Amino acid sequence: FQSQSEVTLSPVHEPVQSSPEPLKTGVIEENQPYPVPEFTPIDFVPLNGEEEKSFDLYKAARTVSPEDVFVDPKAQPWHKFDVKSYIDAGRIKNKNDAYKTAAFNQLVSDDVPMDREIPDTRLGTCNSVVWPREGLPTTSVIITFHNELRSTLLRTIISVIRRTPSNILKEIVLVDDASSDPNVGRELIKINKVKLILNRKREGLIRARIRAAMIATGDTFTFLDSHVEVNQDWIQPLMQRIKENPRMVVAPIIDVINKDNFQYIGADAFLTGGVSWAMVFRWDWLSRHEMETMDHTVGLKSPTIAGGLFSVGKAWFHELGEYDDQMDIWGGENIEFSFRVWQCGGEMEIMPCSRVGHVFRDDHPYDFGKKGSNHVFVKNNNRFVHTWMDEYSTFYYGTRPNARSILPGDLSVRRHFKEKLQCKGFDWYVKNVYSRQHMPERDSIAWGHAKRGEHCLTVFPLKNPQPGIYGKLGGGNCNQGINNPSFQDMDKQSLVLKKDTGLFQQPTKVLHDGKEVYENKCFGSIDKPPKDGSKIVLADCVDENDHQRWVYHSVNLKLDAYQDLCLDAFQMGNFRLKKCANKDSQQFLFEMLNI
Ligand code: UD2
Ligand code: MN
């Protein structure tokens, strides 16, 4: 019996427990190895060369050695966990290091209580509905982390235990993805229901989640990032929806935990998951009609999910082929999963009555390996673009021409699942699931946003409106994603340069017999003939169109018949034709080139 007088231990501390040691190899004695189920491979035929290698990787990613799984038979309820010692062991001494480990404010996070209350951010009738606690599927909460802060990780776990009915919460499976301090995860198995998988080498969040899925035993899996706090009744809407439809993948609304002061802020409820043609996740606004008629207790169909927080049935996740184990570190798996779910017979919804806060940050605080983060993102994206997007991949490469230089690697395992599940094509997805997406015109030379430095070509209203003229061309902030309510009507910045006619157009809202419709209007010089200094306006397209017919020469936009005049970012809200010269103000880059 050890004397405890030197340190203040919480009264619940087990007297015989020695302080945890850094992990070496093998099972730590006081922990019983967790029985890991046998791996059952999918039936591949035939195999050769690259395919064989892919299959080996597939198998390896799904094999969890019992020696890498830790549970503590003496685990206790969360409120008996010695929070103070756990947090104190990771405190920083130098204030300047506050953002070093996690790219969010550790000084603040370490002092925010682990069991704090957060505002109930649900809208509509969510908080008057009595959410049932019985008769719902159980869930394994899966959290992977690499060098997470002790405080954010523990707050995640405690919020899950406190706010999830215990009959629904089967277990919390942590995956320590080779963090530099193994005790951060290792000490948490002292809390009831917490299991730990240790990745002895860094796998990235995608393979880390696959590993967790191999040992998790709940009816459903609920994936969370390692820096979240779940809100009131968050799990029931998710479980209820999966119970109704076992092929439904559901996500909460992701509230915001401010990375500087850790304030919990309710997020906008009127967004669904989308994706740009560059394959970057974005939020799309609902239409005004959809907002006005929204019932928060009902799921909101979502073409994609952000990726970090969602629930999926165990059987469905495995049947779908989990994730692509040849994707590394971070990025793209959420879009890949979204396409796969929809194209292969599943559905995706955001449940607005389920809220989970997440600490969003500006940077990845961790390493991406020798080739760098961009290589990782592009390779991950290329893999699913080739698997799922069919001929629409040209739009992706039009947006990211350089992506062609990175090879996706062997895709046979992913194609195996695509065939086995008889998945639909991308054309079906675009037309039936993501009709909100802007369609590049195939007969175009250039399409989408056109950028000049940090700004995007934008149409501004005229001070003195004239018939047949809809606005003038200038530069504005590039509007994309969450802060852009104008996304719901056509984008004021989406442009098309037509291949055959040289017309440079934008879809524009006009009245036809009292009805609002979109028509393509044409950019052109206000002066006929155009001259040095002419303003550019969006006007009705005309037949005699020397002043409206453009060419795009490397980075310059010129009128075909007046090639000594170039579009020039003359003043911010006021672009003009100017004598061509080699200067920045005449250089424009389109979101997409159809090449
Ligand atoms: C978003 C998702 C994230 C994932 C990612 C795309 C949300 C809230 N988050 O990124 O879950 O879908 O987009 O891939 O939607 N991690 C590891 N190993 C690594 C790197 C990260 O386990 O090598 C962990 C990390 O500790 C965290 C999680 O993976 O818990 C997600 O990483 P993140 O928080 O850096 O990503 P985030 O939120 O920017
Ligand atoms: Mn995150």
UniProtKB/TrEMBL annotation:
Subcellular location: Golgi apparatus membrane
One example GO MF annotation: polypeptide N-acetylgalactosaminyltransferase activity
UniProt cross-references to SUPFAM superfamilies, sorted A to Z: Nucleotide-diphospho-sugar transferases, Ricin B-like lectins
Entry EC number(s): 2.4.1.-
Coiled coil as UniProt keyword: no
One GO-annotated biological process of the protein: protein O-linked glycosylation via N-acetyl-galactosamine
Keywords: Disulfide bond, Glycosyltransferase, Golgi apparatus, Lectin, Manganese, Membrane, Metal-binding, Signal-anchor, Transferase, Transmembrane, Transmembrane helix
Cofactor: Mn(2+)
Classification via PROSITE patterns: RICIN_B_LECTIN
InterPro entries named in the record: GalNAc-T (IPR045885), Glyco_trans_2-like (IPR001173), Nucleotide-diphossugar_trans (IPR029044), Ricin_B-like_lectins (IPR035992)
Membrane topology reported for the UniProt record: Single-pass type II membrane protein
Cellular component GO terms held in the UniProt record: Golgi membrane
Residue ranges occupied by any Glycosyltransferase 2-like domain in the UniProt entry: 140-320
One Pfam family of this chain: Glycos_transf_2
Pathway field: Protein modification; protein glycosylation
Annotated family: Belongs to the glycosyltransferase 2 family. GalNAc-T subfamily.
Protein name: Polypeptide N-acetylgalactosaminyltransferase
Species this protein is from: Oikopleura dioica (Tunicate)
